[in-house]
Amino acid sequence: MGTAIFKQKNALYALVAVASCGLISAEQLDGLNRLVQAANVNVLKMTARQTLILLAEEDEIANLTAGLERIGFKIGVFNNAVRNVKACSGNDDLCPRAVGDALGLGIAIQEKYYGQQAPHDFKIAAAGCSRGCTDPLCADFGVMCKNSGSFDIYIGGKGSGRKPLHGQMLVSGVSYDQVFASLEFVLDRYRELASGKERLHHTIERVGMDKFAPPLGSHEAAAAVDEDFLNMLNSEGAVK
User: Fold this and answer.
1) Which are the contacts of 171, defined by CB distance < 8 A and separation ≥ 6?
2) What is the pLDDT of residues 145-164, one digit of tens each?
3) In terms of DSSP H, where are the helices of the chain?
4) Which residues neighbour 14 within 8 Å (Cβ) at sequence distance 6 or greater?
5) DSSP tag of 212
6) Among 10, 65, 176, 222, which one has the highest count of C-beta atoms within 10 angstroms of its own C-beta?
7) CA angle 62-67-73, nearest 5°?
8) What angle do CA 94, 108, 89 make, to 5 degrees?
9) CA triplet 127, 162, 206: central angle to 5 degrees?
10) DSSP string over 94-156
11) Which of 66, 186, 168, 52 is nearest to 119 (CA)?
């Protein structure tokens, strides 16, 4: 695993700062403003992965790193690690199209899995509806809200490079807790089955999707809940 601090052609260093799926508090903004001014950072760049890039002189990097961590940011990671989670604005406060809290889910996933070891970069995306603004189909592990209590999961997507690839559906209609159980299972299997530094989609192509299917028992509860809910609706309709 590497730390996302990269020397540029102009001799400056690019430091990648990670927030909670792009969510930044007023206090963090204030602290960030003070920090970058003290380090003579003239501009910040927001990235497609909901991170911030700070360009600074080499001798400012240590102070910037410590300062960012002090105000609640993490430093970016890459290469053989679970990357920061890309989550949309999907909740009732931030998006009228959201059918579930993708933002809250993404933040919880990032807090638990960020920086964990993986055979290659492992990218996660969460979307609050089928529009998929965060490209969950182009992530190693993509989650799409189906309704307020269930999620569809896709794995093996790839967005970068000249040949992007859509992931395949792993499970449909799983609960919040089962998203975490599925992610845990997929990561464990990926670590076990990957050949060297192999992206997940290559591992799936080589060994098959069935090797990554979570145990059926972990999803039976969600199916039962859905069936009970439908039976309740049908009975209420019959009474009317």
Assistant:
1) 152, 153, 178, 182, 213, 214, 219
2) 998 889 999 999 999 889 99
3) 26-38, 61-70, 102-113, 176-193, 200-207, 217-239
4) 5, 6, 7, 8, 53, 54, 55
5) G
6) 222
7) 110
8) 15
9) 80
10) T-TT-SS-HHHHHHHHHHHHTT-B-SS-B-EEEESSTT-TT-GGGSSEEEEEEETTEEEEEES
11) 186
The type of residue at 179 is: V
Q: What is the pLDDT of residues 170-215, one digit of tens each?
A: 999 999 999 999 999 999 999 999 999 999 999 999 999 999 999 8
Half-sphere exposure of 139 (CA within 13 A, CB side): 26
Residue type at position 70? R
The token pair at 231 is: 């039976």
- Best CA proximity match to 198, nearest among 158, 168, 166, 143: 158
**How far is the C-alpha of 38 from the C-alpha of 141, rounded, in Å?**
38
pTM above 0.85, yes or no: yes
DSSP structural state of residue 158: B
